[in-house]
Design a protein that fits this description.
By secondary structure, this protein is α/β, with parallel strands linked by helices. The chain has 14 helices and 15 strands. Strand 8, helix 5 and strand 9 form a beta-alpha-beta unit. The radius of gyration is 23 Å and the shape is globular. It starts with about 30 loop residues before the first strand and ends in a 42-residue tail after the last helix.
Length: about 450
């Protein structure tokens, strides 16, 4: 299932994304096949940051969830984004259930048959991709568990069963935060926390004078803003209460509304719903805010989240007020630039203090820079690659199991041996020569 549901409008990165161009498959490089529940062109977030970086050195295929097509026969929609080959299985409306799984499997097999390589890595964001990919052989299987998807509204009832199978098959499990790491660490022998990071240079532009976007220009100050997906994780009652009690404050809400009825959103003269914006536009909006908000509801869907926007707001030089999300409290709660508030009254007080903080930008920026030190998507990506190299080295050190023998493919859900490069007649070039860092 797609967490964007029927919302297929394009948001994406914006003008800084590389222009679409042909990508030549290089069989001497590893091939990473990413299977995701998130559309590449929707909100630009963790998968795009990481997968685009892998594409600097590897062949990368990003497999999205299927979409209905008017064509009578299935086909594979393909485009290039930042060096990544993004593919979308397209199918006739009547195709569903097991037939759709078979269709996806066939389209993926046909694509990979044209992409030979020395090594293959399967990178999962969703366990729901297993039914059409569990037969694939790979040198490494990674599960980047960025969210507790089973807690999200609309999660399929069999997601947890598929996740158990994925945990059996995966060689490495990365988690999007420390709370999620604690929830998964006893379910797999190699789980590693990688909280979402930040592109400091990109959001640092908000610290410089920016031209106010047209739809924000006439909004009075002080402005307290939020950007991100507005769904069941967003506390609309909290926003309504704070806006009602502080009519002189103006609340700028940026982002797509998904999985909740837009009619439920609070309406007031000081609440401004500006809709989705591209990744490149966000610093322009952030630059015009005095306080950045994270008014998350405290429910099952937010129990394990590690919001990417926390370091992004700080990189933009904006003080932050958040509800007590566990990973926000443990990482930023004692910094003085992220204020935590558990009730509407506390939230108002925290916003008042944050407004005072914004009046002293020198101290604010110095503290924010100290918090963000050594934090970057480049660093996260490099550390992930190191873990992957170590896992490959561990496999190869087991002389009895490497090269991995050809074995009958067991039924779905069982752990199976992955194919070695030699099984596919591929090059024996070492992994470090293929773009994986030496350990």
């Amino acid at each position: 299932m797609s967490w964007a549901g029927p919302y297929q409008f394009s948001i994406g990165k914006g003008s800084s994304a590389s222009e679409s161009q042909a990508v030549v498959h290089d069989p001497s490089r590893p091939t990473l096949v990413c299977l995701s529940h998130l559309r590449w062109g929707f909100v630009y977030q963790r998968p795009q940051h990481l997968i685009a970086r892998f594409a600097r050195e590897w062949n990368v295929i990003y497999v999205e969830e299927p979409l209905v097509s008017d064509a009578p026969a299935p086909w594979l929609e393909t485009r290039i984004e930042e060096g990544v080959t993004v593919v979308v299985p397209r199918h006739p409306a009547h195709c569903s259930g097991d037939a759709l799984i078979t269709l996806q499997r066939g389209l993926l097999d046909a694509l990979l048959a044209t992409r030979p390589g020395s090594q293959r890595v399967l990178w999962y964001y969703t366990p729901m991709a297993l039914p059409f990919s569990d037969h694939l052989r790979a040198d490494l299987v990674v599960y980047d568990c960025m969210d507790e998807l089973s807690a999200f509204r609309g999660a399929p009832p069999d997601l947890l069963a598929f996740e158990r199978s994925l945990l059996q098959r995966a060689d490495l499990v990365f988690t999007g935060g420390y709370s999620l790491y604690e929830a998964k660490r006893d379910r797999h022998p190699s789980v590693h926390p990688f909280p979402s990071s930040v592109d400091v240079e990109h959001f640092g532009r908000a610290r410089l004078p920016q031209q106010d976007p047209v739809d924000q220009l006439a909004i009075p100050r002080p402005r307290l803003g939020f950007y991100g997906v507005i769904d069941e994780r967003f506390d609309i009652d909290l926003l309504a209460r704070v806006a009602r009690e502080r009519p002189e404050w103006h609340f700028v809400m940026v982002g797509p509304v998904v999985k909740i009825d837009p009619a439920e959103l609070p309406q007031a003269a000081n609440i401004h719903w500006l809709g989705p914006k591209t990744y490149d536009e966000l610093p322009h909006y952030l630059s015009g805010w005095q306080v950045a908000l994270m008014p998350f509801a405290l429910n099952e869907s937010t129990r394990f989240i590690s919001p990417t926007k926390t370091p992004e707001y700080l990189a933009g030089g904006c003080p932050v007020v958040s509800t007590p999300i566990t990973d926000v409290v443990r990482t930023y709660g004692d910094t003085g630039v992220v204020r935590i508030a558990g009730t509407p009254d506390e939230f108002i007080v925290a916003c008042e203090r944050a407004l005072d903080d914004s009046a002293d930008p020198g101290a604010l920026l110095a503290t924010a820079d100290a918090v963000l030190q050594e934090m970057s998507w480049d660093q996260t990506w490099l550390l992930m690659k190191e873990k992957m190299q170590c896992a490959m080295a561990d496999w190869k050190s087991d002389k009895q199991n490497w090269p991995r023998p050809v074995a009958a493919v067991p039924s779905f859900g069982q752990r199976r041996p992955h194919a070695s490069p030699l099984e596919n007649g591929a090059s024996t070039t070492s992994s470090s020569e293929q773009g994986l860092p030496a350990v």
